[in-house]
């Protein structure tokens, strides 16, 4: 029987991370210490810890930007003090599945830009690849450094009604959120030091060091210490805090396009002491904006001549140009086939069943069942442009019906999965809120995954949308050593 903070907590029929779903509402063993600590916390102590968390975020500038908010665009990322706990055995499976997945995605991209065997053998329709806005014909035949395309990946995981981990999507262009993971951990270690220590939680603090090592592995000049920089669109980007945070943690320069110059197919950074040759650019902007001479000619964010230096092998980019093809939600539907084709294995982590609207049969089904499905644009992110059928109006469904008919390639549909829920501090007490998990995978000399990831939580009651831009927040994720 629940008491204290959890006295009104209901698991309902959802898969609950902390409690077993039965008539007794029993606590799961790996949450017992967290439950005991939180259950005895007073209202004053809780308020104090919440205030400390907010103050820490403000002090460190941990904010994100909402571009369409008329009341102001800078917000502190909402943070919940109840950590998500993942047992070691559970994490091992997740880790293996993510490593398998990033290997297959990289083999896919190498294949597409070289022999294209997967297209020739009909595993993936050629038109799907060639109509993707992030498919780059310009790099066909180009050998990227170390044959790695996706060096930094943030795959989004959910758990379904049975508690099975599933991959919802892959973020292989400019995945964001790892700075919140690191800040969340720092806050929780201060807020609940004894509980944290007693549970033997795996550390995540090595991420900046691992990221730097991943970047340095790509350097075309291995005979000396590589010069790495982080290329940011600037202060008005929604993830600018993260850009400055990671650059500072790695001890590298954060630059904008105007800080770099391409000369004779090499890239240099302007400094007070003169020009310094750059070896590796961790770029936090999409392909279209990195070089106005090569892609969008009106871009003022990039570096004219960067692509020529890249194609000559004189500078490396992370992630590689053309990786957006693996981000496409239509391509996502074929990842299980990629794993079988390139690795000869069955997927360790399941994908969410996906209807592709460019297929007539799938499209007809989607159009007839809009009220029961989640409709997503193939190349949007941040939770924008979605339709959740059960929460939609007839007008919204008719609007999406028109969009799908006009441009079927750009829409996919998936069944509405009741994401697992986690106890979360809300205005009315501790309530269940839906969550997902974004682990961060680094692919350099080795594949490295810091244990855990960013657990995002849908703070609005009954909402399935966890994105910060749509009212979501985050939790710290504790992977146990034993």
Q: How would you explain this protein's 3D organization?
A:
The chain starts with 31 loop residues before the first helix and ends with a strand. Helix 3 (88-112) crosses helix 12 (335-343). The strands form seven sheets. Strands 3-24-23-20-19 form a five-stranded mixed β-sheet. The radius of gyration is 23 Å and the shape is globular. The chain has helices at 32-39, 43-59, 88-112, 117-120, 126-130, 178-191, 193-198, 207-216, 240-250, 306-311, 329-332, 335-343, 360-368, 394-406, and strands at residues 63-65, 74-76, 79-86, 152-154, 156-159, 165-169, 228-231, 253-255, 260-263, 266-271, 274-277, 280-283, 316-318, 350-351, 355-356, 373-377, 387-388, 411-415, 421-426, 429-438, 440-443, 447-449, 454-458, 472-479. By secondary structure, it is an alpha+beta fold. The chain contains 14 helices and 24 strands.
């Amino acid at each position: 029987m629940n008491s204290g903070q959890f006295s009104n907590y209901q698991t309902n029929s959802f898969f609950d991370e902390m409690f077993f779903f039965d008539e007794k509402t029993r606590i799961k063993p790996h949450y017992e210490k967290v439950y005991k600590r939180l259950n005895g916390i007073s209202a004053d102590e809780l308020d104090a810890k919440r205030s400390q968390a907010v103050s820490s975020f403000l002090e460190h500038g941990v904010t994100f930007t909402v571009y369409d908010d008329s009341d102001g665009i800078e917000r502190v990322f909402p943070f919940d003090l109840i950590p998500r706990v993942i047992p070691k055995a559970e994490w091992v499976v997740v880790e293996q599945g993510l490593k398998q997945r990033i290997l297959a995605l990289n083999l896919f991209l190498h294949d597409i830009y070289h022999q294209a065997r997967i297209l020739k053998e009909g595993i993936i329709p050629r038109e799907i690849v060639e109509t993707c806005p992030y498919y780059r014909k310009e790099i066909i035949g180009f050998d990227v450094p170390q044959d790695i395309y996706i060096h930094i990946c943030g795959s989004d995981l959910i758990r379904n009604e049975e508690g099975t981990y599933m991959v919802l999507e892959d973020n292989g262009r400019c995945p964001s959120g790892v700075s919140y993971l690191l800040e969340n951990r720092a806050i929780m270690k201060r807020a609940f030091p004894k509980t944290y220590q007693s549970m033997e939680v795996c550390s995540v603090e090595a991420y900046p060091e691992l990221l730097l090592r991943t970047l340095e592995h790509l350097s075309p000049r291995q005979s000396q210490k590589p010069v790495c920089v982080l290329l940011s669109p600037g202060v008005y980007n929604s993830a600018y805090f993260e850009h400055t945070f990671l650059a500072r943690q790695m001890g590298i320069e954060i630059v904008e396009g105007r800080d770099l110059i391409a000369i004779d197919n090499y890239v240099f950074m302007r400094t007070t002491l003169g020009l310094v040759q750059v070896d590796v650019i961790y770029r936090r902007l999409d392909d279209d904006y990195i070089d106005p001479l090569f892609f969008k000619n009106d871009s003022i964010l990039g570096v004219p001549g960067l692509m020529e230096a890249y194609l000559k092998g004189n500078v490396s980019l992370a992630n590689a140009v053309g990786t957006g093809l693996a981000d496409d939600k239509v391509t996502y539907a074929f990842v299980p086939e990629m794993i079988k084709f390139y690795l000869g294995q069955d997927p360790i982590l399941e994908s969410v069943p996906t209807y592709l609207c460019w297929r007539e049969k799938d499209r007809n089904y989607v159009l007839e069942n809009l009220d029961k499905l989640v409709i997503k644009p193939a190349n949007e992110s941040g939770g924008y442009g979605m339709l959740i059928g059960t929460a939609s109006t007839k007008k919204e469904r008719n609007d999406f019906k028109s969009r799908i008919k006009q441009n079927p390639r750009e829409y996919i549909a998936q069944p509405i999965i009741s994401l697992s829920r986690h106890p979360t501090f809300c205005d009315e007490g501790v309530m269940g809120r839906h969550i997902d998990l974004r682990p961060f995978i680094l692919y350099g000399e080795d594949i490295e995954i810091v244990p855990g990831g960013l657990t995002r939580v849908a703070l609005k009651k009954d909402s399935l949308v966890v994105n910060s831009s749509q009212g979501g927040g985050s939790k710290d994720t504790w992977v146990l050593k034993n």
